[in-house]
Write a structure and sequence with these properties.
globular; disordered N terminus; 188 residues
C-alpha cells in the first residue's frame, strides 16, 4: 500500500463529525473529524500494529537551517501543516508552543510547515509576532504532496520515535487532547 492510499484510507476510515474546526485548502472539504488515527487514542495502544514510515523531506527553517525529518528519528515529531490565514491554525499554535516547551526534554519536537502561497513574506512576520518557539518551514509543494493531498488545514501528523506515522489529525488540536498522546509516545 502506498503512503498516499494509506493516507486516503485513514482519512476516510474513522469519522466523528462536528468536533473540529478546519480551513478548506481545496474545493472539496473532508469531513470534520476529531481524530483520524492509526491507533485508538482513548484505548490501549496496540504495540504489534504496523505503521507507515513517514515520508522524508528536507526544508529550510525560518532561521535558515536545514530540517530533515529522518534526522529526528528517536524523537516524537508533531508535524503540523498550517497557514497564516487559517483561524483554527492560529488558534492551536499557542497550545503547540506550550507543549513544545513542556515536552522538548522528553524528546517531543513540534515542526510547522506553512502552506501559505506567499511563502516567507507572510509566514516570517506572523511567526515572529507570535514568538513561535519550534521549527517553522514553508512547503515547496513537495512535502504536502508526499503527505497528502492535504485538503484540510490544520492537519497534523504525529510521528513516533521510529519515524512512523502513528496518528493523523485533520482539524484543530488542543493541548488537552494532544498532551496525553505525546506523553504516551514519549514514554515508549
Amino acid at each position: 500500500m502506498t503512503f498516499t492510499s494509506f493516507t486516503k484510507q485513514l482519512l476516510f476510515s474513522i469519522t466523528i463529525a462536528g468536533l473540529l474546526m478546519t480551513c478548506d485548502t481545496a474545493k472539496e472539504q473532508l469531513p470534520n473529524n476529531t481524530d483520524q488515527t492509526t491507533s485508538d487514542t482513548a484505548g490501549a495502544h496496540n504495540s504489534d500494529r504496523e505503521f507507515t514510515t513517514a515520508p522524508d523531506f528536507t526544508l529550510r527553517t525560518m532561521g535558515g537551517e536545514e530540517f530533515t525529518l529522518s534526522d529526528q528519528q528517536g524523537r516524537v515529531v508533531v508535524l503540523n501543516f498550517w497557514a497564516t490565514w487559517c483561524a483554527p491554525c492560529r488558534k492551536e499554535i499557542p497550545d503547540f508552543m506550550e507543549l513544545h516547551e513542556e515536552l522538548k526534554d522528553d524528546g517531543v519536537l513540534f515542526a510547522g510547515i506553512s502552506l501559505d502561497e506567499e511563502g516567507w513574506e507572510k509566514v516570517r512576520p506572523y511567526a515572529e509576532d507570535m514568538g513561535i518557539n519550534y521549527p517553522i518551514m514553508v512547503d515547496d509543494g513537495g512535502v504536502s504532496r508526499k503527505y497528502g493531498p492535504i485538503r484540510t488545514i490544520p492537519t497534523t501528523f504525529i510521528i513516533n520515535k521510529k519515524g512512523q506515522v502513528e496518528y493523523v489529525a485533520p482539524g484543530m488540536l488542543t493541548k488537552d487532547k494532544l498532551q496525553p498522546i505525546l506523553e504516551k509516545l514519549a514514554a515508549r
